[in-house]
Design a protein that fits this description.
alpha+beta, Sulfite Oxidase, Chain A, domain 2, seven-stranded mixed beta sheet, five-stranded mixed beta sheet, 8 helices, globular, disordered N terminus, binds ligand MTE
Length: 317
């Protein structure tokens, strides 16, 4: 397994992102803009080969910084976890098709000096999106490479000025049971909730995503705003965000409440710590046959390992 020092990878990554964003920007300019997480044993996933279906990639780069090809738009938008709609990944796109994402507001408050409720159009205008190509590693042991559009969460948090008491960020998804059939399921504590420690939220890799492949997000991908935290299991990347709250105590996520013995707060990708019901040592990249080894912190170790210095990574799952 090759390893590139962060001194090399970061500038390259930033450079690529900038170039890609120039092109993505041209496309997006007009818009101005968990089986309770059980692994999919049926393997009836879309066969995805780079370049097939959907809009053309927005970038000259068709791969992430490790050289792994992007998944297609088709695969990324037709194999989704969004329990508010369905636990069937291949039904989500159809069920979410008419879900209305306008008007939409995002309330940002809690332990901040400037609590603000943003209309989504204002939010998109105030925080310009750039392209970030990230691996998404689901806790169910499948993965994809996705060219997101988004902006660093840090920019939003800086705008509302957290107080010195703020230690965590709590995110909440939309609650519309009349439009989201899964929210009528008694198994989960709706709405979907997730959280990050403040320093994780301020890390440059952490983005609020507004689009992918140079286009606005579709409902199934979490439109109009979802979190992306690429070194953590995919369930941390909460979709359909309506509330961001700075808090003092560690938030309890929907998954922590539903299955505390299976899902922790940190949920960093770690091939050495198995899920109680399956191994996390390897993963199935959608579009590939066979499995590939899972990388520590999903391959972002150089950028984020320092956040966890002194912590027992097996214990702080
Ligand atoms: N956010 C909400 N609101 N509801 C969900 O069910 N599923 C999570 C996460 N965000 C989920 C969510 C899980 S388990 C994963 S793996 C990712 O979204 C999947 O993102 P994708 O469908 O864009 O690949």
């Amino acid at each position: 397994m090759h390893k590139i020092p962060s001194s090399e990878i970061t500038p390259e990554h930033v450079y690529l992102s900038r170039r890609q964003f120039m092109k993505a920007g041209a496309l997006a300019a007009g818009a101005a803009l968990l089986a309770a997480c059980a692994p999919d044993l049926t393997d009836s996933t879309p066969q995805d080969s780079a370049g097939q279906g959907g809009p053309a990639p927005s970038a000259s780069a068709q791969a992430d910084e490790l050289g792994d090809p992007l998944n297609t738009f088709e695969a990324i938008t037709n194999y989704n976890n969004y329990y508010e709609f369905s636990t069937d990944k291949q039904a989500v796109a159809r069920l979410a098709k008419d879900f209305s994402v306008r008007p939409w507001t995002v309330e940002v408050g809690g332990l901040v000096h400037k609590p603000t409720t943003f209309g989504i159009e204002d939010l998109l205008a105030q925080f310009p999106s750039e392209e970030r190509i990230y691996r998404l590693r689901c806790v169910e042991a499948w993965s994809m490479v996705i060219p997101w559009l988004g902006f660093p969460l840090k920019k939003l948090l800086e705008a509302v000025e957290p107080t010195s008491d703020a230690r965590y960020v709590r995110f909440e998804s939309i609650y519309r049971p009349e439009e989201m059939p899964g929210q009528n399921s008694p198994w989960y504590n709706w709405p979907y909730v997730e959280g990050l420690r403040l320093d994780e939220a301020l890390n440059d890799l952490t983005i609020l995503s507004t689009g992918l492949y140079g286009k606005e997000l579709l409902p199934q991908s979490g439109a109009p705003l979802r979190l992306v935290v690429p070194w953590k299991y995919g369930f941390k990347s909460i979709k359909g965000i309506v509330k961001v709250e700075l808090v003092a105590e560690q938030p309890t996520s929907l998954w922590m409440a539903a299955a505390p013995n299976e899902y922790g707060f940190y949920a960093n990708v770690n091939p050495q710590v198995d899920h109680p019901r399956w191994s996390q040592a390897s993963e199935r990249r959608i579009g590939e046959s066979g499995r590939r080894p899972t990388l520590m912190f999903n391959g972002y170790e150089e950028q984020v390992a320092g956040l966890y210095a002194g912590m027992d990574l097996a214990k702080f799952y």
